[in-house]
Each structure stands twice: as structure tokens, then as C-alpha cells.
């Protein structure tokens, strides 16, 4: 799951891309102009940006130059346009754009470009919660899962597991019951459900802290939890 920012002044394009990328399991932010794109970039640090070239206030190439100038071009950017010339596409690539998609965008080209962009993301990968083996330094026991995941012992400090071994054992039980015979989308949803339940439990239901831990905006976090059927209220306080 990645956080993808879609910047396009056409509502139909934004909604279409949001639906397609959402079906692929990504969290999608929408911006209809450069100012909204600046704000979204500052707030959530997207993993990838789909940026339209022709927009009414500031065009996409100018915004790309701005991000490059200010050291904010830390994520892959894929340019989109239905009217751009080859020179425009070459200029955008020279500035730092990863790819260029011509509208109307074919589904397979879109998904391939997004996958390539996420694979080549220059930012350091986000930490993965170890589920196969967790050593807690202030206890005499460790929890070992039979699920086929690998982790380095001692990756997390003991304070990160202050909820105690009982919570960890519940997590282990959930992972042991995760079937690898499920279709990919169902298996992914099951994993994400466990992932968010773990963080909600660990952070006492604080949506602010869970949003920080998972790298999502609170609005997108609420939407994701609702989509997965995870009730945040049962893990403690809601909101702050």
C-alpha cells in the first residue's frame, strides 16, 4: 500500500484515477491545482505523484521545477497530459520526472508506470513491523511465529511493546490464521486489518499517533479503517 497524490484540474480524471488506484490497495490524495498539491506534499510526503501538465494556475512543469529547486522532489513524479509536445515531455524528464503518460491513459500503462515508480522510490523504505520473531529485552520470553516472515531480533526496543506479551501473542495468533490460499486482494486486506489493529492497540486508539506511525493522514486513515471494517473506538480513545 502506497500513498499516491493525483494532481489534475479535471474532476473526471481525478475520480477515475482514485478509483483505479484505490482498487489496487493504495491510499489516494486528490488535488485540483498546484496550491493544493503543495499543501498535500507538505502534509503527507506522498510515495508517488501523478501530475497533470496543463493546469489553470500553475502548470505541472513549473510545479515540478519548484519542487526540484526547493529540494522537495524526493518522490517519483509521473507527468500526464493530453496535449503536451515531445519537447515538454523531454523537459519534464530532464527536471526529474520519472515518466510521462499521454491521456487518455490506458489502464495497463498506468499500473505499470505506478509500479515502476514505487519500485524506484528513492526514499528509504518504511519500517516493517516484525512478526516472525520479536525479542523483548525486559522479559524472559520471546514470541516466535510460524508464519513465513523474517525479522531481525531486537529491531524494536522494549518500550514499543509495553502492551505486554498478551498483545503479541494475539498478534501471533492472527498471523498464524492468515491463509496464503486467499486471493491476493483478500489476503492483503486481511494483513492490513491485522496491521492497523496492532497499531491501534499499541497506541491506545489514538488516531493521531497511529497516523504518524503508519505515515497516513488522519482523513485517509479513517477511510482505510472504515474500508477494512476496523473499529477504532474499541481500542481506546478516539481522535487525539
From TrEMBL:
The modification 4-aspartylphosphate is found at residue 52. The keyword Manganese does not apply. It comes from the Bacteria. It holds the Pfam family Response_reg. The keyword Phosphoprotein applies. Keywords: Phosphoprotein, Two-component regulatory system. Residues 3-118 form the Response regulatory domain. This is Response regulator.
Amino acid at each position: 500500500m502506497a500513498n499516491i497524490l493525483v494532481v489534475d484540474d479535471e474532476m473526471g480524471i481525478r475520480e477515475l484515477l482514485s478509483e483505479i488506484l484505490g482498487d489496487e490497495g493504495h491510499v489516494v490524495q486528490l488535488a485540483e491545482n498546484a496550491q493544493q498539491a503543495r499543501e498535500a506534499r507538505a502534509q503527507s510526503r506522498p510515495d508517488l505523484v501523478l501530475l497533470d501538465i496543463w493546469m489553470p494556475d500553475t502548470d505541472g512543469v513549473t510545479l515540478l521545477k519548484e519542487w526540484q529547486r526547493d529540494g522537495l522532489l524526493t518522490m517519483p513524479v509521473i507527468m500526464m497530459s493530453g496535449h503536451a509536445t515531445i519537447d515538454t515531455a523531454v523537459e519534464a524528464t530532464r527536471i526529474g520526472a520519472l515518466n510521462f503518460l499521454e491521456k487518455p491513459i490506458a489502464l495497463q500503462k498506468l499500473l505499470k508506470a505506478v509500479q515502476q515508480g514505487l519500485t524506484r522510490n528513492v526514499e528509504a523504505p518504511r519500517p516493517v513491523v516484525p512478526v516472525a520473531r520479536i525479542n523483548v529485552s525486559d522479559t524472559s520470553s520471546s514470541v516466535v511465529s510460524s508464519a513465513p516472515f523474517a525479522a531481525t531480533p531486537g529491531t524494536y526496543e522494549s518500550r514499543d511493546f509495553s502492551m505486554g506479551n498478551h498483545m503479541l501473542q494475539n498478534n501471533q495468533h492472527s498471523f498464524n490464521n492468515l491463509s496464503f490460499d486467499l486471493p491476493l486482494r483478500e489476503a492483503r486486506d486481511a494483513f492490513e486489518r491485522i496491521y492497523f489493529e496492532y497499531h491501534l492497540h499499541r497506541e491506545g486508539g489514538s488516531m493521531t499517533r497511529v497516523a504518524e506511525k503508519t505515515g497516513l493522514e488522519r482523513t485517509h486513515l479513517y477511510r482505510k479503517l472504515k474500508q477494512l471494517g476496523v473499529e477504532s473506538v474499541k481500542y481506546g480513545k478516539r481522535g487525539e
